Amino acid sequence: MSAELPPTPLSPEELAKRQRDVRRVVLIRGFLFGLIVAAWWIFFAPDELVDPGLKNLLGVVAGLIATGGYYFILREQLFPKKNAG
């Protein structure tokens, strides 16, 4: 026998609050992930890889792509679908 109890169903208010909390955390983590990627590209990318004049612009673009990719992977958490049943 398992000592785990079955999960209790959440009320609609609790479920909405939990979804807002998860959405907030996903948005913050995506922003921070993009910021880290952009900062790495700007400060640590080798100069042989890109022209020094384009380094800042490409860093921002890389950060935006990383943020967008993170949000795309977790789009179900950001925009949950309504259950049909």
- Give the uncertain stretches in residue-range form: none
**Multimerization status:** single chain
- Hey, roughly how much beta strand do the residues contain? under 5%
What is the rounded distance between the termini? 32 Å
Query: Helix and strand succession?
Result: HHH
Radius of gyration: 20 Å
- Using DSSP, what is the number of strands? 0
Please state the structural category. mainly alpha
Please report the number of helical segments.
3
Task: Give the overall shape, derived from the CA principal axes.
Answer: elongated
Largest sheet: none
The average pLDDT value, as a whole number, equals: 87
Helix share bin:
55-70%
Structure write-up:
The protein is an all-alpha fold and 85 residues long. It has a domain at 21-78. Helix content is 66%, strand content 0%. It is elongated.
